[in-house]
């Protein structure tokens, strides 16, 4: 089982190191790891945030463990050379169109949420975000406005084919819960969203067990924090999913706990090819200090075992170990504690 490890910038290397060591401790034989550069570090070493050799390695792997990209030194570079292009490039080049972002408030951590604890304790949802389309990847540019000033423009679009395939991922994911899917769009204003909504409805016709609802994104933002228990799976496009997933993570109270999977259609010998990353960024302010909470990356590695290696039992063991560590009071700085990166990793390994 080949894993391409792309630690990237900032705290990426620290958190991926702990996740790998958890994977090794869970007793998987046949694990071969390849290391590659992405992000600002790749730009500094190779002149590009996603060097050709990294992309080739990623393609040839069965799964990718990704740390984080983002480096303030690179803020002044032209857009195509900025660290963020590494993750956008991997998603597009590898056709990783389905992003799964679970968000839940762990028992005993309700106080970290800015929400009232009774509401916070009911937050347990999965955002299924389309990842290779929308305004993110449409034509974009700058032109002269009628008044002679600058005008930026970005093209938003979704085809039925793109919507249908992500809807199917959401329906499938909902089956492991209670089959509720809420599709989020802005169909009262956007043509793109009208096609989205019509297509999701059509796709649901062949999935009669799915309890499908629709919501406008502004209302959804409000509902996620005022009444989160109404959501099982939230199905949405790239831009709205980007925003709602940060909103959901803020509602959880720490982005140091949230994992993600980005999946395509390609099947390897072991499962679905995918990229796994903690949703926190590179956190340059605490990089290299051994302070970052590796739990989000460890939980991302668990998602890798589930989706790319069909090792549900091992994935569940890792998740249970993280949950037990939290219940036992193991807390990174993001959770108001003083356990460093290695201490949190060791605590999870002890509880496997
Ligand atoms: C995310 C990030 C990325 C995105 C950035 C880094 C390009 O915010 O994964 O949510 O917008 O998709
Ligand atoms: Mg984001």
Descriptive overview:
With 352 residues, this protein is an alpha/beta fold. 39% of the residues lie in helices and 21% in strands. It has twelve helices and twelve strands. The chain has helices spanning 12-25, 40-46, 52-60, 84-93, 117-120, 160-174, 191-204, 217-226, 238-252, 295-308, 312-327, 341-350, and strands spanning 2-8, 32-35, 63-68, 98-104, 124-130, 140-144, 150-154, 180-185, 211-216, 233-236, 259-267, 272-278. The chain has a ten-stranded mixed sheet, with helices on both faces. The chain has a two-stranded antiparallel sheet with strand order 6-7. The longest helix is centred in the last third of the chain and has 16 residues, at 312-327. The chain is globular and about 60 Å long. The relative contact order is 0.17. The mean pLDDT is 96. The structure holds 3-isopropylmalic acid and magnesium ion (MG). The site of 3-isopropylmalic acid has 4 residues, from helix 4.
